Amino acid sequence: METTLIRKLACAVAVIALAGVAAHAETTAEILSRVDARKDMTRDVSRQIWEWAEVGYQETQSAELLASTLEKEGFAVERGVAGIPTAFVASWKRGDGPIIAILGEFDALPGINQDAVSSRSPIAGKAAGHACGHNVFAAGSLTAAISVKEWLERTGTAGEIRFYGTPAEEGGSGKVYMVRDGLFDDVDIAIHWHADDENSAAARTSLANRSAKFRFRGVSAHAAGAPEQARSALDGVEAMNMMANMMHEHIPQEARMHYVITAGGLAPNVVPDFAEVFYYVRHPETEGVEAIWARLENAARGAAQGTGTEVDWEIIHGNNPLW
Ligand SMILES: [Zn+2]
Known about the structure:
alpha+beta; Aminopeptidase; Alpha-Beta Plaits; 21% strand; elongated; binds zinc ion
């Protein structure tokens, strides 16, 4: 089942990539049979990345497995691009032709671990897992990139095929830093996909988003013995959340705003001097995110002022929409 799925995905990506440069006639069936010939490698890489289940920016083994496999296939690999240890670009070139990029993600999700069975069955000792199939994504793209390279080689076609090892898709926006460093500037086409339960072209957009951790700092004291001396950082978080929840009624309906409290104190009888809330804001347009974001920052400032606490925030990630 897993092998069949990855095979189909690798084939689809390779065929789409080749559609742009197919100056030489070679039937889809021939290309598929060559992808098929690599099914054991594809399955093994997918399974290994699934086993490692490394979270964003810590995908050391997964990135190295992909990079070294591509190197063995004749690709030139540049590791640690954009200042990210697990980001890499592998390329193979013949003459001057179009530059085709195939993206590969390989990060796992924290807090999710699951055995390969259909009922809930966490694996003891594992803190993360591949919930949405980035292991399949990486292995399928790997085989597709190698297949395109072989096709260019075999047919003598001019062109360049690149595999972009893009870390931290899950909330880390690894690609943003790679784009900012100009790594995609000369690319003619970038092929991106995601594992799903069917093969189809997803002609849909994704929302622009921005996230930040808002950190409130107050004064701790015993909650019964000297509450008047305390200023609760958790009050700051709760006041901010209350304003944000009221704001929900007055933002465009296509916007999304959600949060989790990532620190809120340790015991009810100790007024917390530190609390943190992690926010996401999403909207179809970047400008829409920015407008809501400015109001959210005001809510944070107001919450701090009203509760006698201080607040600062760290932007965690930001993306333009995918059109
Ligand atoms: Zn995913």
